[in-house]
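pipeline/complex-builder :: batch 7 item 3
reading input block
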Amino acid sequence: MSTRVTNEMVTGSTLASLNKAQLALQRSERQLSSGKSINEPSDDPVGAGQAIALQSTLDGLVGYERNVHDGIAWLNSADGALTGLNQLTSRARELILQASNGIDSQADLNNIAAEIEQIAESVKQTADTQYAGQYIFSGTATATAPYQQGASDAYAGNGGSIIRLAGPSAGVAVNVALNNVLGEGKAAGDGKLLDTLRTIAEHLREGTPAAQKALSGEDLEALKANIDALSGLEAQVGAATDQMKMSITRIEDLTLTTTEQLSHVQDTNFTQVAMEYSNQQAAYQAALRAGASIVQQSLLEFLH
Amino acid sequence: MSIPTLQGLQTALSGLLADQQAIDVTGQNITNASTPGYSRQVVQLQTNEPMRIAAIAPGTGAGGQLGTGVMVTGYTRIRASYLDAEYRNQNTSLGGASTEVEALKQAQSAFDEPSSAGFSSQLSEFWSAWSSLANLPASEPAKVAVVSKGAQIASTLNTLSSQLQTVEAAAAQQYAAIAGPSGEVQSYASQIAQLNQQIKQSLLARQQPNDLEDRRDLLLDKLSALGDVSVTAEADGTDTVSFGDAAKPLVQGPSVNWPQTLTAAAGGQLGALLGLSGPGGALAEYRGALDEVAAKLASTVNALHTATPFFSGSTAATIAVAVTASEVQTAAPSNPGGNEVAIAIAGLRGGEADQRYGALVAQVGSAVQNAESDEANSQAVLSAVGDQRQSVSGVSLDEEMTNLVTFQRGYQASARALTTMDEMLDTLINHTGAVGL
């Protein structure tokens, strides 16, 4: 028996193909209007999982970039402060050289001693430099000023390091242990910068030949050693700054490739979808036209 | 031997009656062209018992059998029962797949992924908040941000868990509604049992119950969407119906065995609902995975946030932030002002919690995708089988119109034969032997 085609079959299949065409149109329309090829996880389950992971990676990179910029600003503050300290110590050295030529009167030496003490206060003031309200030379005790003005040269901070993450497990210390160079003054007798400056001032005031000798001898040596240590810190800051700047380039590259990957996974390929959309539209119109003409036809039209 | 004079009238009459009945059947087909479950009927025509004439040829003495017209022996329902079985098979698959698609899509939309409002984005913001806090470990606003992002992801997990539970509960409710005492299974089964009874009686009265059988077949079609249906046709015309994986037949003759226990293997809507809502069902599995995400999140963060636990609760439904902004820990107690804890927690980004959640989203997406493709496949096969069935049983109006013309012409011709015989008899009765009258 040949296949009979009944009216129900014709209307049913017309309806089914119209539905199918419309469903395809709707899918394309959603991709075009949202700009995303994955609007629900079921559109592409693997892609959806990837998109979630990539988006989180991207957010993480934004965080690293913020960390790096913050770290660089922190290091720039430290660099500025160290330059200031350098100038102060150079001035102290000049003063000692001037005092050790042996022609100054005791009154002149006393004036020089006063200036040296003033320099010691300025050194402490510079060490109290803040960035964004945080003391940068207090270790992790960023709310505490490392040094108090006045006679006491005690260090109030700690030895902790401030870490900025420039990438996963790429922590960079953005603070330097200035207290290791400045020391804790006369009371500690540690031979560090503040101790040295205080000793120099004392020797100047004493004015004895022994003191004079010490000034041009061990005091000058100690100051030189302190200046070298400061330069060491400057080099450390410079190296950390370079490392941060390189991180920025690497983070920007990573951001670019991750963004590309994410776009590849979840963004609509407009050219392709627009093409499909117009094909689907043509198919829908053809289905409508065919349906409209075929459903009307019947033998009834021709029997009289 | 001669032929009875009025035999021709009887023959023509039988033609008139047969064509009339055929036209009635055509009318029935046309009016039911769009009736769901209707199978076209055809009239069965057969020649009447012939009249035996001993010797019509006096010369040779040869006899003959003269036809005495036509009779209607019955109205046959055109139906292919093997197509019914295949149709119901596919209908069961489609019922199951559609139910799964519906429920799984609800679950999927609860996740709201991928979007900037979904859990993954919020989790990412939580890690970013820790990263910002690491830059300003003493900052109160940064700590408040960490606590509020933490509270946000905790409450999103709570909501997600309860949404999944709602979908699960809705599936269980739907099962109860369909399988319950006033549900569709009970209703279809008792109608089928009643039709079994009526069909049996009609057959005993030697009447072919075409329309009753159509109604019973339609009910079986509907039942097949709810679960596996297998039908055994009994000799007395009743159908014994096995349903799902129930132990006893659902319908046997005039009696109904319902309610019975079904499992996820019952197929159809009921099987799918049990598979979704049961203890080992898909939705329970998703909630379990979500609990794992919550547990991983709490354990990894708390392991680093050692001063006080940051999160309390270890399931998606119970997880909550347990600290205030001032209790947020950024460094070890021995290192006040440090940021190593904040850095370590920010470094959990992309860790176990993120991965477990990403896998869950992909799992839900795959389940929806599979169910959708199952649905599309069963739909395609079902409409192909449906077309085959329509091709056999469906009413073609063109065909019926052609039949109508055929039977009408037949009726007209029989009437013409009757008129011709009438004229012959008129000649015989009124004009024969009336010479000169």
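note: The beta strands of chain A are 130-131, 134-135, 163-165, 171-173.
queue -> next item
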